[in-house]
Specification:
There is one protein chain. By secondary structure, this protein is an alpha+beta fold. 29% of the residues lie in helices and 34% in strands. The strands form 2 sheets. Strands 1-2-3-4 form a 4-stranded antiparallel β-sheet. Helix 2 (114-123) packs parallel to helix 3. The relative contact order is 0.17.
Length: 172
């Protein structure tokens, strides 16, 4: 579970970019005919270590997206990004979606698909290897990816917990 220490307190000074991950059209059949509504899942981030996701539901697509963006701005967390990649390998699961993210060397790029790519690019990660196993449901993939990123520990935190220098953490 994502810790309280990763939550972002203030969003007023952040320049957040939003990415639409998926839109789902839902149909309700009534005696008067079919009623359509839309659910949108959006990821927002400043491409510098802060990311959040949101879900919005409404009768129109634009309203659903606007609601999702507002919801995402309330769920921001801080992710440790080290030289354009993540500090260590991480596995996470949400529902039927399993996600594996691994650090990659400079120049690799974001090797991820669909919903995972939107989350990783919104964080500002430029080099990462990612694999999704199990369900390809975009809602669960976004939540599993953010859970994996939220469990990452920065090299400075690991060094402080072990009582050694940051250089020694990377040497092993």
């Amino acid at each position: 579970m994502i810790g309280v220490y990763n939550r972002v307190k203030s969003t007023s000074d952040l320049e957040l970019k939003d990415r639409l991950v998926a839109i789902n059209r839902v149909t309700k059949v009534t005696k008067g005919g079919r009623t359509f509504s839309f659910a949108a899942i959006v990821v927002v981030g400043n491409e510098d270590g802060i990311v959040g996701w949101g879900l919005g539901k409404a009768g129109e697509v634009t309203t659903a997206i606007a609601k999702a963006v507002e919801s995402a701005k309330k769920n921001l967390i801080r992710i440790p990004v080290h030289k354009g990649t993540i500090p260590h390998e991480q596995l996470a699961k949400f529902g039927g979606a399993k996600v594996l993210i691994r650090p990659a060397s400079h120049g690799t790029g974001v090797k991820a698909g669909g919903a995972m790519r939107a989350v990783l690019e919104s964080v500002g990660i430029t080099d990462v290897l990612a694999k999704s196993k199990g369900s390809s449901n975009p809602h669960n993939l976004v939540k599993a990816t953010i859970a994996a990123l939220g469990e990452l520990r920065s090299p400075l935190t690991v060094a402080q917990n072990r009582g050694v220098s940051v250089e020694k953490v990377f040497r092993g």
